[in-house]
């Protein structure tokens, strides 16, 4: 029999346990709730809270026991069945999980969230048709809930129904063009569909081991054995000449070997076999860029745009190509498109910032480089570029901090040493600047400007022989100011 005093004490302990749980002290909270239950085992809420805490602790069997006791006391709470269903899923008790979710659906037949949870349980249990039926039912109840389309798309994709999955993700993107997860999944579905369709052509050409020729070739490529991968891909192509994936992958191996013409031919063949093969178009354009055939590369990127007009990386590639052509305003437009789709890619902001810098739009460049730092504070290049802008603005102390941070993240970044040296000189710290230049020339001896700067530093230090050596080396490296430095040395001698 529960005494009034025990019930009151259980409530007090429950309050303490709740505070501990909110502060993340789940172990201590579980002990408190166990004590409370011992005092009042008829309080259903205590079991529910204890189950939630054991779930946080990943002690799923204890969580299951707690939620089951809760449901013994409160049999008409659909959320209780949902909670226990989730635990059963984590314990791989699929039938029990499905039974719990079905019970919750029976109690709330118009609750689309619970129906989606049941669909997910069916999917996890490998009952694909039932999962899709539940997603369809949820959509009928709540047709404006994009999350349901997303969950159905994931299930369709995971079961290799790529066309139907793409339909769901594209529907989401029509209504919410900035839905990053849908955009990412759409791209994965496009790639997966290519891999599925293309690899099927190779399945019958099994070599000595359990790995197919394509898989062996891919392994060779990953190992850096480029010629070995080319030889194997060539066998795949001989056996299955319509395997666009093999043509593309062999093209990539050729590209890495610097055999650009052969790479270009292979990528073109992959495109011919699969006209919507985005990766092949991207690789084809990459080779064209290496060959300075920029307009043809832009034509490839335009074709990709027809296939997928929400592919941020394609806009980025177009921007980079336009930047190489010094068409900065157009490049900025493409980088801006990429950023609208994916606001968390550091490279997009860096490249747009560089275009702003080239156009002398200093404040815009500074804003982009600052955003790049925010996104990736462990990337040396972001601080380097921002340091350059701050230097141009005459904010030398702040620039010095950025160059120092850039060096701390990449101690072999010789340009950061050179630019920090320039900043230190403007701050009157010539000896520190000299040390940075010595480090820079150690990292890259073939950089002529460093030798010029060191030559003048040695003149300042009255070490004319070393000054002559650096100016002479700069002359060998064809720096236009080397002769002036040598003349100055001769004059002082």
Automatic annotation (TrEMBL):
Keyword vocabulary terms for this entry: Repeat, TPR repeat
Coiled-coil portions: none
SMART domains linked to this entry: TPR
Pfam family, one: TPR_8
Ranges: TPR repeats: 10-43, 44-77, 78-111, 112-145, 146-179, 244-277, 312-345, 346-379, 380-413, 448-481
InterPro entries named in the record: TPR-like_helical_dom_sf, TPR_rpt, Ycf3
Signal peptide residue numbers: none
Protein name per UniProt: Tetratricopeptide repeat protein
